[in-house]
Amino acid sequence: MRIHLLLSAALLLASCAPHEPEVDETEDTESGEDGLSAGKNGSACTASPYNCKLRKDGGNMVENAQGGLWGIDDGMMVDGNGDPMAPCTFDHLRFNYGQTRHMNGKTYVYARSCSNGSSGWFPIDNVKSESILRERVGEVNAKDTGGKRLGCYRIKSSHDPALVEKKVVYDSNDDNERAGDYLPLVRKNGKRYANLAFNVPGFGLGGPAVDIFPSGTHFQRVDVPTDSGAPSIDIPLYVKDSAGRFRKKSGSMKFIYGYVMTKPGHKRFGWMTTEALVADSGCQ
Question: CA triplet 193, 197, 198: central angle to 5 degrees?
């Protein structure tokens, strides 16, 4: 069963189209029954005003009468720079809510997964119910905190195999919810990519990817307020216990907030784990 992680003083213890995202600018400190409150990146946040669900009501997926599956024609999936990844040959795709980009003279929506074995940007023109999807997809983008730029990183060209299958959610029985979802893994096109997440996993917020970039991409860390006071959020990882359930703690992952400056010139803010990054210079 999933549980919400609570931060303590010793906390166990990342482009948008050229328009403003449709999220509430008011930071309401009053929490609802679910313990979430409005913040800077949305109306349902916890642990930080920048650690939020894509939307308060409804899931992270763009919904339809087919359980969120949208029929498509074959199309080229691209990464956050607009560079080709691989053709998407699935019959249907699921798309994350609020995520659109304009690149290469086209509008793209963010597909959760396709035949490349990764998420990525898919041309909306190739979705069979394009007009309905355009009405429902919305627009939500993570914001700049206005805080100090803390350090420059780049996405690694390697990953720790021992981390991949560990779970980021206690007692998870989901095929996903892996630490590997946040690491720079090699995809079916032979290239290594890492996801940019809208929020930190383990808080019941969904941990949706909102962009994807190849290894070598620069990530500029930005100071971010958190409940613990640290400019980062650490989450525990879990491996199987003697009963075969992911309930045994095994290390942790640190998530930091910042942005990627894309080739089209858009800043894409979100969370990334330090396990996917290495210190570098040259961030914009």
Answer: 155
